[in-house]
Amino acid sequence: MFLARTLVQAPELYFMDEPFQGIDAKSQQAIVTVLHALRQHGKTVVIVHHDLATVRDYCDHVTLLNRRIVASGPAEESFTKDNIRTAYEVTADDDAFLEFAS
Q1: CA pair distance 44, 40, nearest whole angstrom
Q2: pLDDT < 50 positions in the chain
């Protein structure tokens, strides 16, 4: 509902805090389709997103934060194992959850 209200206003910049939290897969895909369409129309979409496994599917630009900016830029450059380790304060021994990062 909130997304629909925002879309009607047609802003140039969208801020969304965890837009996929607590929704089913079908709704999540519908939102992703809308976000990609907004990007294709030159809109800027900023989302807070914690599901690392889907970052590359949903985002073309990533900023990793942990009390400071750890990395920011195109996903293929900034969403790396080293940057994720730094952001999440894990060592190479804890890499089991990093198989999706380059």
Answers
A1: 10
A2: none
